[in-house]
Design brief:
extended; single chain; ATP-binding; alpha/beta; 31-stranded mixed sheet
Length: about 1400
């Protein structure tokens, strides 16, 4: 039969004109879009393209209308390009048919309710269509028992269907697809025997003759089996077959239709020939120009087919392919004769060749090497180049070629006929040139998966014929150009995974032919334009992982063809529009990770094709609508992390295809409906972190496919149902943090696949069933915080896969079974808070992987497990509160990963060794209340991550190592109740994070260091029961967070610093058993947080503060003091007279403070006037007579002898005995001394200088004595003593007794220290002594004139010291020099000095 005369050929020849496939249904005529293949030139291309279109437009064409009502097939667009891989298209379409099998009802059998349920497949149909087909086939047979498809034939085998060697169970008249699949399965089941997969088609390099392994199917009896086997071989052996090898000049006569030798022998394998030639035809379609037929004689002759296309379109397709195979068999000579007239023509596009070579030269060396075949010959034979019939370049495909360079060297204007450009998956960089817009005929542009940057050129809008634009996975920036809307033919647009910004342009609404739109993983902002509703052909919309805001437009409901909507991970707000219910073809709806609010619309139940729904991580409220029960095809429902309330509707039981249900982290209440047991396909059920109550329904045992059951963090009650043991596929079970009671049911031993079991924080009682030993796959067994009784069953030792065993906080008793040593995979073993006895398992770390071992608060005895010594994997070890024995020096090793160690409250001995410094990750070390001896190793300072160190209640000796100051993260240091000695090392002041310091009950001595104020975060300071001496440093008052202060049982003396009253957070204060004296500072009245106080056994006196803690304390807190009074039983009350006297004294002091200055001023004026008046009457003979002033005052300015005064003071105070001490300050102590002349003075003795040459402490206060020798605080403002060799040192100028105020606190110190107060005293003392001495006594040897002269000089000097400008006042050195000079510079007598001279005398001292 000739090609022209074949009926099948004529059918495809005039496809557009003939209006094929008119169906019996009313108004089902097919509207066919013009196809791109010419049926006169390529009928095979027509057949495959039309087949593809039929499936793409299936709903509209109504081809697949079956007898059952509403069973139309919905087909997703396929991923294979029919121009490149028609076989892939056919296989994928076959796969998709089986994915929709339930809806098509193809496999409906005679048995009632035996529809096939298909689980989602694991193969990617884009990557492995054959794998997909085989997996689906396997799944069909896995469900055989339910479907009763494979019932034995019982001898009724039909003749002619025994090609596979065994009777088949499908009736080929009723289910040809079932026949095909069964035979395919059998073929692969017998693969090794049939040697189908043996090395096929080993080609000879010389003559390329094909050696074909015999196929196992008879093409006369089973052409479908042949087709599938050969298709498989083609894909598996593609590289070895060298089908696409370039023609090497050894073409066999008669088989040159494709331009290259074919490897199949048509006499031996006509089906192989058909498939190979079909593949080649599409690869070389335009070049081959095969099958140009005459326009006349185009009448259509249709051969009757045996399958009904209304009932079985797949059968029709397969039969048609078979007919075409027979056609090719009978007319191979036609292919050879026709193709012989079409040879490759030489290239006439030298311009194109030059442009390609120029671009090649701009690429890197490796890329040029890859394109080494690009030489001077015509480009039509070059790698990646395809030319049209005029030898112009039409296709440029260099995807995944490793090219590195830019596009700027590519002259796009040199390729006017270029229709396809694919440079995807290379290393191209730079921007996209604007010249790309000159490719006006381009239909396919793919620059995806490169390193392109910059903006998308606006000129891209000139490519009006463009069908596919792929620029995804680059670094493109800027906004999407408005000109994108000019590409009205565009079918696929993917700009995802770039850095695009701005909003989605409204012009995108012009792309009415768009079926695929992906802009995900960019930085697109703004709202979704309402024009999106114009894209009625859109099947995929992906805008996820952007910054899109605003609400979802209601126009989204106009996308009637939409199958997948992905808007997740954006900033969308508002409600889900009810119009979304119009998307009746929608299969995937992803809106998670947004800010959507409101309730889930009832219209969601209209999406009956929906397969997956994810609205998680939003702000949705309200209850789950019952209409969700209409989503019978739903397999995935995720609503977690919202605010959904109400109960779970019973309609949830209708979702029999549901495999995942995630409602966790909401506010769902009520009980779990029993209808949950109807979800037979459910694999994962997540209802945790809600407010569910009631019992777990027994119907949950019907979920036989369930693998994950999470019900934790609810309020479920009752016992665990026995039916839980029916979930034999269960892998993880978590019922923790509920109110479950009763015992763990023995049926749990049936869960042989269980790997995770958590029942923690419940009220489960009873014992652990021995059936637990059946769970050999169990890795985590978590039963803490329950009421489990009895002993640990030895069967737990059979759980060889166990990694995490947690039994803490129960009521377990007895010994740990020896079988526990078998658990060599344990990483965490927790037995805390039980009643276990005996010894710990000695081989607990036999596997060397143990990380956490806690057995604290039990009754264990014996040694520390010996396997722990070398257990370097340990992170956490807690064995405290037992009765363990052993030597910490010998039983413990070096643990580089150890974070937490607590062995306290045991009977351990030994010493701390230097190896603890090698535990560099240790943060928590507690060894308290043991019998550990020796010194604290200095190497402990190398454990720099240590936060807590508690070595208290042991027998440690020696000093506190200064290296502990290196533990900068330490916030708790407990060394109390040991035998430590020495002082507190100053290096501890570096512990700025310290919150608790307890050094009580040791043998420490020295003074309490003032640097404790550096530890600003201290909450507890306990230095009690030591030998600390000296006073309480006032710096303690700066510890504003301090809550506990205990300095009791020491040798502290002096007064309580008033700054202690500033500790407003202090709750407990204990200063008892010291030698403190004086009054309690009045600042204690403000200590409102104080709840406990003890100041007993001191020498304190005066009234108690008014704080609540003092008012409510017992007498024991104040006993054994000198004279405390207050309203406490056992203490004397403070008398009202005493209070009255005190008030009078206060008033008198106020009056004195006001009256005395005024009186002194008046007296001073009177004296000055009197002196002036008297001086005028002086005789001139007194001018040269010396006068001696005699005074008994050792401290008079002119009689002062420092050495004599010092000896008198030492004698009077008996070398500064403490009984004469009346006060303690920051720089020294004040002593009361009665000198030999009877004069009573207060003497301040400075403390011993510190290492830096300055007295320890801060010099702020001096003490004055009133007439009753009571000390009062007075601020003399004394200058600080400076270090002599420091940069701010200046010579000290002034008397030893007093230094006037000066700027000693600043860095710059004036050389002159002014004596303002000294000047006033000098005037008063001079004038007073002058008047007294003149009127009472006079020495005969002293000249009156001389005395008058000296008096005048003194007044002048005093006047200068009172100058208004401090810089104009004289220094003490100048004053001393003038007073001691023998020859006075000023001869004026006192009585001759005028007031103007006196007041202006300072003008000569201007600095």
């Amino acid at each position: 039969m000739s090609v022209e005369g074949s009926p099948l050929f004529r059918l495809f020849q005039k496809m557009k004109r003939l209006k094929i496939m008119v169906l019996k249904k009313q108004d089902t005529k097919q509207v066919v879009t013009p196809i791109s293949f010419n049926p006169d030139e390529d009928p095979v291309g027509c057949m495959l393209e039309i087949t593809l279109r039929l499936f793409q437009k299936m709903k509209r064409l109504k081809i697949m209308v079956l007898k059952e009502q509403d069973t139309k097939q919905v087909v997703t667009p396929i991923s294979f390009n029919p121009d490149e891989d028609p076989v892939g298209c056919m296989l994928e379409i076959t796969l998709r048919l089986f994915q929709k099998m339930k809806r098509l009802k193809i496999m409906v059998l005679k048995e009632q309710d035996t529809k096939q349920v298909v689980t989602p497949i694991s193969f990617n149909p884009d990557e492995d269509p054959v794998g997909c087909m085989l997996e689906i086939t396997l799944r069909l047979f896995q469900k055989m028992k339910r479907l009763k498809i494979m019932a034995e034939n019982n001898g009724t085998q039909r003749a002619g269907y025994e090609a596979s060697g065994h009777p088949i169970s499908f009736n080929p008249d009723e289910d040809p697809v079932g026949c095909m699949l069964e035979i395919t399965l059998r073929l692969f089941q017998k693969m090794k025997r049939l040697k189908i997969m043996a090395e096929i088609m080993v080609l000879k390099e010389q003559d390329t003759k094909q050696v074909v392994t015999p196929i196992s199917f008879n093409p006369d009896e089973d052409p479908v089996g042949c087709m599938l086997e050969i298709t498989l071989r083609l894909f598996q052996k593609m590289k070895r077959l060298k089908i696409m090898a370039e023609n090497n000049g050894t073409q066999r006569a008669g088989y040159e239709a494709s331009g290259h030798p074919i490897s199949f022998n048509p006499d031996e394998d006509p089906v192989g020939c058909m498939l190979e030639i079909t593949l080649r035809l599409f690869q070389k379609m335009k070049r081959l120009k095969i099958m140009v037929l005459k326009e006349q004689d185009t009448k259509q002759v249709v051969t009757p087919i045996s399958f009904n296309p209304d009932e079985d379109p797949v059968g029709c397709m397969l039969e048609t392919v078979f007919f075409f195979t027979l056609l090719l068999l009978s007319s191979c000579h036609a292919f050879a004769s026709v193709s012989a007239t079409f040879r490759d023509e030489s290239s006439a596009g030298q311009k194109e060749a030059d442009a390609l070579l120029k671009w090649k030269a701009s690429l890197d060396a490796q890329s040029q090497s890859f394109l080494s075949y690009w030489d001077g010959n015509g480009p039509c034979n070059w790698t990646g180049i395809i030319c049209d019939k005029s030898t112009s370049v039409s296709h440029l495909n260099l995807s995944s070629s490793g090219l590195k360079g830019t596009l700027h060297g590519f002259n796009f204007s040199s390729f006017p006929k270029l229709t396809v450009v694919d440079l995807s998956s290379n290393h191209l960089s730079g921007t996209i040139p604007s010249d790309v817009g000159k490719l006006s005929r381009l239909t396919y542009l793919d620059f995806s998966s490169n390193h392109l940057s910059g903006e998308i050129p606006a000129s891209i809008g000139n490519m009006t014929d463009l069908l596919f634009l792929y620029l995804y996975t680059n670094g493109l920036s800027g906004s999407i150009p408005q000109q994108i809307g000019m590409l009205k033919c565009l079918n696929g647009l993917d700009l995802s995974e770039n850095n695009l910004i701005g909003s989605l342009p409204p012009s995108v609404g012009n792309l009415v032919n768009l079926s695929y739109l992906s802009l995900s993983n960019n930085k697109i902002s703004g709202s979704i334009p309402k024009e999106i509703g114009n894209l009625t052909d859109l099947s995929y919309l992906g805008l996820f992982s952007n910054k899109i805001s605003g609400s979802i437009p209601k126009e989204i409901g106009m996308l009637g063809s939409l199958e997948k909507l992905c808007l997740y991970n954006n900033s969308l707000i508002g409600e889900i529009p009810p119009s979304i219910g119009n998307l009746t073809n929608l299969q995937f709806l992803y809106l998670y990770k947004n800010g959507l609010s409101g309730s889930i619309p009832q219209q969601i139940g209209m999406l009956k094709c929906l397969n997956e729904l994810d609205l998680s991580e939003n702000n949705l409220i309200g209850s789950l609508p019952p209409s969700v029960g209409n989503l019978v095809n739903l397999s995935f429902l995720n609503l977690f992390n919202n605010k959904i309330s109400g109960s779970i509707p019973k309609e949830i039981g209708n979702l029999t295809d549901l495999s995942y249900l995630g409602l966790f982290s909401n506010k769902i209440s009520g009980s779990i409906p029993k209808e949950i047991g109807m979800l037979g396909s459910l694999e994962k059920l997540c209802l945790y972190n809600n407010s569910l109550i009631g019992e777990i329904p027994p119907s949950i045992g019907n979920l036989t496919n369930l693998q994950f059951l999470y019900l934790y963090k609810n309020g479920l009650s009752g016992s665990i149902p026995q039916q839980i043991g029916k979930l034999k596929c269960l892998n993880e079970l978590d019922l923790s943090e509920n109110n479950l009671i009763g015992a763990l049911p023995p049926s749990v031993g049936n869960l042989a696949n269980l790997s995770y079991l958590s029942l923690s924080v419940n009220k489960i009682s009873g014992s652990i069933p021995k059936e637990i030993g059946n769970l050999t796959d169990l890795s985590d067994l978590l039963l803490p915080d329950n009421k489990i009784l009895g002993s640990i069953p030895k069967e737990i030792g059979m759980l060889g896969s166990l990694v995490n065993l947690n039994l803490l906080n129960n009521s377990l008793s007895g010994f740990i079974p020896a079988e526990m040593n078998n658990l060599t995979n344990l990483k965490s073993f927790q037995l805390t808070e039980n009643y276990l006895t005996g010894r710990l398992p000695q081989q607990v770390c036999l596997g060397g992987v143990l990380e956490r071992f806690t057995a604290d608060n039990n009754y264990f005895t014996g040694p520390i497990p010996k396997s722990l010594k070398n257990c370097t994997s340990l992170h956490r070890l807690r064995l405290e509160h037992n009765q363990l024995t052993g030597n910490v020096s010998e039983d413990l090793g070096i643990y580089p990963n150890l974070d937490y160690l607590d062995l306290s409250d045991n009977k351990l001995v030994g010493e701390l060794t230097s190896k603890w410094g090698q535990c560099h990750n240790l943060t928590f070390l507690k060894l308290l209340n043991n019998n550990i001896s020796g010194e604290i190793p200095s190497e402990l300072g190398k454990a720099t991550q240590l936060r807590v160190c508690d070595l208290s209640s042991n027998h440690l000796t020696g000093g506190i190592p200064k290296e502990l100051g290196q533990l900068k993260f330490l916030f708790k240091l407990m060394l109390n109740d040991n035998h430590l000695s020495g002082s507190i090392p100053s290096e501890l002041k570096m512990l700025s994070d310290l919150e608790g310091l307890n050094l009580a009950a040791n043998n420490l001595n020295g003074s309490i260091p003032p640097w404790l104020s550096n530890c600003k975060k201290l909450l507890e300071l306990n230095l009690s029961a030591n030998g600390f001496s000296g006073g309480i440093p006032f710096e303690v008052g700066s510890l504003s967070f301090l809550q506990v202060l205990d300095l009791s049982h020491n040798l502290l003396i002096g007064k309580i610093p008033e700054q202690v009253g500033n500790l407003k957070s202090l709750e407990k204060l204990n200063l008892s058993h010291n030698k403190l004296f004086g009054r309690i500072p009045s600042t204690f009245d403000g200590m409102l947080s104080l709840t406990s106080v003890d100041i007993s056994h001191n020498q304190l006196e005066g009234p108690l503060p008014h704080a609540k803690a003092f008012r409510e304390a017992s007498f024991e807190a104040f006993r054994n003091n000198k004279g405390l009074c207050g309203n406490i039983t056992g203490l004397e009350s403070c008398s009202s007279n005493l209070n009255h006297t005190a008030d009078q004294k206060k008033k008198s002091k106020i009056v004195i403070a006001i009256v005395v200055p005024i009186s002194c001023t008046l007296l001073l004026v009177s004296i000055v006037l009197g002196i002036l008046y008297s001086s005028k009457r002086r005789e001139k003979h007194t001018e040269n007579t010396p006068q001696v002033v005699v005074s008994d005052d050792m401290f008079a300015v002119f009689n002062f002898d420092g050495k004599m005064v010092y000896e008198n003071i030492v004698e009077a105070t008996e070398e500064f005995d403490s009984k004469y001490c009346i006060g303690v300050g920051g720089y020294g102590s004040v002593y009361k001394a009665q000198l030999s002349n009877g004069q009573m003075v207060a003497v301040k003795r400075l403390h011993q200088l510190s290492e830096d040459g300055c007295p320890s402490g801060h010099f702020k206060q001096e003490y004055l004595l009133d007439s009753d020798f009571v000390a009062h605080v007075a601020d003399f403002g004394a200058a600080r003593l400076l270090k002599p060799d420091s940069s701010n040192w200046t010579p000290f100028e002034g008397t030893f007794g007093y230094s006037a105020p000066a700027s000693w606190g600043s860095v710059i110190i004036h050389v002159i220290i002014f004596f303002f107060t000294f000047s006033i005293m000098l005037i008063i003392s001079n004038l007073g002594s002058f008047i007294t001495e003149r009127s009472v006594r006079r020495a005969s040897s002293i000249s009156e004139e001389t005395n008058s002269s000296r008096s005048g000089l003194r007044c002048k000097i005093a006047s200068r010291c009172l100058h208004a400008c401090p810089q104009s006042r004289p220094s003490m050195q100048q004053v001393s020099r003038e007073l001691s000079a023998r020859n006075l510079h000023s001869p004026e007598l006192f009585h001759t000095i005028t007031l103007s001279q006196l007041l202006d005398s300072s003008s000569s001292y201007t600095s």
